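tokens incoming
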């Protein structure tokens, strides 16, 4: 049997509303799912993808919110996802850039942690993010990258970046469509 396919997702600006430059989601009341995000997560789950959220949350190291608050946000986010028929795992980097950790995107530590002990064909794995560091992280690990315009970045600005994503999408729903389209193409090739 083939290994289960993995999809990596950034959190802020992809699943929930981007809190703003240098701002953070500090408690559940500030966490707002983006339109159709839950639907997209359900669709990917139903299609057999393992969804792994890879998110920088330096607000922890900066003391802006506590690990307990983050745990609470995560617990309730996963609860909502489940209620809507989706499933996902969540991995955070709590560090600041100057801490020199291995997990803060664009470093790839969290991707490796999330896929530990699994054979993952990164070449055919997608990472959906809303920022340039997401695109850079995806490139470093050798994923396909999809940049969404639902968060930090205006897609027309991204066209000027040195590092270009493989695909652009308005939001996670459209990104999930891109992923599934390629999955179906692959299936046709296999037959
Ligand atoms: Mg983001
Ligand atoms: Zn880290």
């Amino acid at each position: 049997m083939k290994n289960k396919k993995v999809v990596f997702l950034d959190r802020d600006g992809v699943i929930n509303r981007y809190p703003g430059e240098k701002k953070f989601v500090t408690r559940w009341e500030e966490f707002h799912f983006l339109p159709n995000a839950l639907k997209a997560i359900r669709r990917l789950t139903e299609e057999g993808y393992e969804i792994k959220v890879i998110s920088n949350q330096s607000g922890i190291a900066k003391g802006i919110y506590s690990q307990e608050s983050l745990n609470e946000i995560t617990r309730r986010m996963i609860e909502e996802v489940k209620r809507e028929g989706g499933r996902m795992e969540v991995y955070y980097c709590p560090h600041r850039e100057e801490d020199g950790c291995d997990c803060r995107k664009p470093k790839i530590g969290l991707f490796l942690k999330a896929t530990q002990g699994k054979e993952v064909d990164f070449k055919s794995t997608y990472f959906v993010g809303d920022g340039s560091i997401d695109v850079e992280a995806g490139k470093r690990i050798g994923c396909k990258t999809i940049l969404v315009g639902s968060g930090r970045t205006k897609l027309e600005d991204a066209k000027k970046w040195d590092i270009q994503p493989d695909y652009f999408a308005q939001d996670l729903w459209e990104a999930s469509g891109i992923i599934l389209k390629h999955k179906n193409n692959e299936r046709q090739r296999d037959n």
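note: Residues 32 and 116 are 30 Å apart (CA to CA).
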